[in-house]
Records
---
Amino acid sequence: MLTLRLTLTATPAALLLRLLLLCASAAGGLLLLAALSYALEHPGHRAAVLMRLLWCLIPLAATAHLAVVLGRTEPRAETRLGLHTAGLGPARLPLLAARTAAVPALAGSALTLLLTVRGGVGSAGGSLSVLNLSRPSAAVLPLQGPPLPVPAAVTLLSALPVAAALAAAWGARAGAAAPAPEDSWRSADGRGAVDSARRRDGTETSRRAELLRSTLQAASGLLTGTAGLLLAAYAARTSGGAWDLAEHPGEVAGSPFAAAWTLIGVGLVVAGPGLVALSGHLLGAARPGPVRLLAGRSLVREASFLGRPLGGLSAVAAALVAVFRARPAGEWVPAPGPLVAVAAALTGCCAAAAGLAALARVRRARAPVRELLERLGAPRQLGRGVALLRAASVAAVYAPLAAAAGLFTALPPG
Amino acid sequence: MAAPPDDVLWARGLHYAYDGSPALQGVSLGVREGEILAVTGPRGSGKTTLLRCMSGQLLPDQGEVWFNSAPVHTLGRAARERLRLHRFGWIDSTPHLVPELTAWENAALPLLLHGDGYRAARSTACSWLERLDVGDCAGKRPPALRQAQRQRIAVARALVHSPTVLFADEPTAPLHQTDRAQVLRALSAAARSQGITVLLAGHDFALDQAARTAEATGAALADRIVALTDGRRARTPAPGGPAAVPAGPEGAAACSLSV
């Protein structure tokens, strides 16, 4: 009941997040069922089936990440304080978060089950099975194979809500506090905060260590991405004839291209925090004025919270660029198979939502600093200038990276 | 109506309500140049609201605020921000520092906002930190410091641009007795030497007039004490009462003040 009430009184943004989780869960369920359908259709192709199932992991991970975001932001800070006072402390809050995320995910899975069932669960050949779709939907959804066995379908569909619930509980655990709460050094669940505070006490050695760490992070991410680019180029050189992405997505999925693209995406995500921190260091270097000082230092501080979601966003942008390049001549957009389209849309939406949620979180966490500056009498233009400079420097780091990754990725000849 | 000439800050008939719940109900107050005026009263008596109204952070619902014979309550938002930035200093009851800046950058923030050079701001801020006995923390960030050190950095930030009026809203609330005495002495010594007018809010000036705590609460340092009760001026405590009692030596922490 508490979960329901919290859902009913949630803000529009939180409701949108839940709706997105519902859609992601439905789409993910559809992908899993498609893999099952393919497996039933081709009992001999074990490797291909396994490959399809493995590819479902990426949308699944994106959905789980969305659930982590939901667990972090919901319930809101004020509600959380009230719940804490009422006895719903750090031990039980993850349970609440798990329920909060499980409800929309379950609804999404149920939606998928409903969509794939025509006229209820019938019995075919003595055993229960999910019947296939009616004609018009069957043309869109690739579930033309034999009827799906209900236990298998339900088991597969329950994977997403379980993953979402676990991820949300993990996101709501005590250590995952906001990036810079007003009194981070005094926060109740404070060991992590204090440890990180000691690490960042600002003395010369710790600052050097910080710089070194972010450089290493950025370098490792960029190296991974470069390795992905090289692998894609190698695959393009060694692969033979033309591939039709629309008709045989399975071939691409099993080829080195897929591994290369994954590597590029992972590289962008891994490099994120280091790149944001480095840009912050650069911004705050060489006798900065107040705008540069505040923007640079805040970027350094928030790098670990902002970097990965922004890296994910840039990976999505790179993918969009690559898709645009891969379109067949004369057409505005390429026509990939429905499954690929669903998976790509799901992953992209989840990454975008996670990125936007991270931005919103960081903005909320900066409210005390804004209030402080107002109290000191800092002009309003200062706040705007700082925000603009932060956005501009982050964009200046990520836009070229995403563009380069998208433009220089080798595509399968087609 | 013009303000009396000898009052640097002057308020008349201030009314303020937070969403309908009244905080100030007709407070009038004059602050003379260079004096340390203590505003006392229990929690919820309107001390903070009074200070925020007088410093231009809040606009009173009714009443007037004059600074140096110029009205503050009719100024626009930007003009009040400028006034706060250039002429006023503010110390909170908890040290609100920017967590990602080092101690000296925090202290130098008003100077940097004025447009001073980085090096000049740094040397001024560091000298203030030295005077307040936190010079060795200049390169550290607030999360690595103790609360008393952070509060001293906040004091340095409020004094660094030599404001005309310093508003201190219970500056010793989060500190222990020894730290309280030290911070208040540092504050008052700095204000006296620079001729800064101080408006000091605190809730325990009148409550605890024992000899050892008189200095720790700031009552001994104030020229005048104004008592607030439920958003109104209460009867002023007898002058010289708490201030006449000398401070005991054992409560004071060792500190070197050269302000």
---
Amino acid sequence: MGIFSIISGRTFRHGIHPPQHKAATAGKPIRRLDFPPRLIVHLNQFIGRPARPIVRKGQEVVRGEPIAEPAGFVSVPLYAPATGVVRDIKLMPTARGPRAQAIIIDVHEASTQQVLYSTPPNNLAEMSREELVAAIQRAGLTGLGGAAFPTHVKYAQPPDDETQVDTLVVNGAECEPYLTADHRVMLEEPQDIVTGIEIALRACGAKRAIIGIEDNKRDAYEVLKEHVKDHPEIEVALVEAKYPQGAEKMLIKALLGREIAPGALPRSVGVVVSNVGTLAQMGRLVPRGEGLIERVVTVAGEGVKRPGNYRVPIGTPARFVLREAGFEGAHAEIIFGGPMMGNDVASLDTPVTMGVSGILVRDDKALPRTEKRIWPCIKCARCVEACPMYLNPSMLGQLAQAGQYEVMEERYNLLSCFECGCCAYVCPSNIPLVQLFRVAKAINSEKGD
Amino acid sequence: MFRKPQIELRASPHVHAPQDVVSIMRNVVLAILPIEAWFIWQFGLSAILLLAVVLAACLLSERLVAWARGQSSPLGDYSAVITAMLLVLTVPPSLPLWMGAVAGVVAIGLGKAFFGGLGYNVFNPALVGRAFVQAAFPVSVNTWPPAMFEGRFSSLMPSTLAAPFTHPADISAWGLKVAADAYSGATPLALQKFQSQQVPLLELFAGSHAAYVTGPPALLILVCGLYLALRRMLDWRIPLSVMAAAAALSGALWLYKPEAYPDPLFVLTSGGLMLGAWFMATDMVGSPVTRTGAIIFGLLIGVITVIIRLFGGMTEGVMYAILLGNAATPLIEFYTQPKTFGARHARRGGKGGAS
């Protein structure tokens, strides 16, 4: 724990300090990527009901035009990231595993960067809370920090819930090693973030906003502080650089001292959390009446020659992004997201979706030659000291290996685990704890059905 | 050129802290080495031979068990080395080699392999071996040779090479002959307990040699233990609470009746308390994983040690205190499970823990 966090108290208990590896990309301004020849826009790239396509095979679409409509309240529309022709709607590989329905667009070679389709609202300043929530849904915004949960759903007041939201927590922690996309957005698009926060405050009914930034990004803190000078309702705060500071429960604890009960949402303690990237997009898209068609992605790792932060059209295949970043193909591991919670992808055709904040490439030099030897648990308690949810991963791991999945859930609160990976990171026995817990949760939920 | 890459698939997290079981164990070995060197410097050739025999017994039994269970080699995790090194420090260096071998085999066979090997042993293996020889060969285990005697690096103690299953030669006569000062063969604890004679504290702490046998100097153990604690390879809560409990209980008794009970500093620095507190109670496998649990575990050991020492028939109680602590560990853990994040704010009262 640093001196700073002891004085300010703005941190959470436990957690880990993995090497940050952010220097390679933190200084790289966001660069726009060219259009790939083909885009793959998944219909289920967010949490909720998959969007319904409203285009046909062979149809011409322009950049920014809607191509799928929301399939209910917990769903968002999708927009064409580039001008081109709908080639097909079929199953394509995803980062999460199973293949899923996607709209495939063949991009016209002369496609312009200009957004050609928008429906600007004429009364943004007078909009009611409900109208703003609808406008946010129309913009197709989801949590760009990684969860990809539809933003408007968090902001809307649930009909059966009396709890009022008093604070909007803006997540600029970016605690995953390697990732610097949010850092760059904070440095380069502070005005969009502030505009986004103003819209979000009105939409969720909160009186104030706190932007939480890890103390390894002081430059971003200074920039935002400067931009909120005339906004007394927005506070900018430094929090300790520690993983997983960006997990919403940890960030709320660090900034407000409030603890969310197991299974509850931030709303239960009067808080809504949105990522800085999401709010920057909100501040840009909602006033213009445009939809989400691109995001900033950090491309890093030993396997790329030109690591950096790229503005990538949604649906760009990993292959195209990696070629631009100087990946020459070899024995490699490709991670969508950060190294702590990201998923490995099996195919280079896997497209960038809304939730992909980074693409990391580890080449064969960085990969261990053989699988690490797994030793028995020696009860060293490092995992117990690391778990930000105060679980007992040592015991959970032993129970998992004994097949005691129900005991894990009933007595040892397995469901509070959000798979941050701290336990597996510190385990000197190399026990794949997170993997064991995923299996246990899956088996339990299957039994429950 | 864009070659078709060979893609590796792994589960998150994709990064790992540098420490593993082997590096932790290696550091524990490193931390015990200075104490082992002190032991050899004090007692010479017999100590070297005893260490070698116990090491061999431990390593061979571990390999034998692994072979019998059809496992790949378990060696390389250094845990059997640690067991051997600690075991040697708990017995007199005049212990006949064959008894050392028995202790080593029992430590690994009964203390560790019997329970399922590394990570599964309930009790500290070194102390299981020590407890066995204590029961089986009480005379040899309780008679200490003089330290720093002339010619200790050129000759062996008379009992070292005793033939297996025979009564070893009595070392008292030899001890009187080689020791420059009056030699009693008694430990400071025995002198205090049975003859009300107290060894100067400074000698216990710094280990300056005398006619009576002091254990490894408290200062040396403290330094070695602190090294591990600072590298976060040892839970400092355990030795601290052992020492705190022992000092508090013995201090209270001493204040009550100073002529009958030793002062707390003597209790802390004499016998095996320091070694036990820093290097045996802290064995990760046998101690609780919870913070509160570690403190309760340490306090329990400290209290039991003082009770055995001051009220029991034996002069030393650390060994049994730690073994009892090991046995209590699952229970302590059960009652000190960490409270899940947010659980105390849950509307429907707390859950988990003991019901």
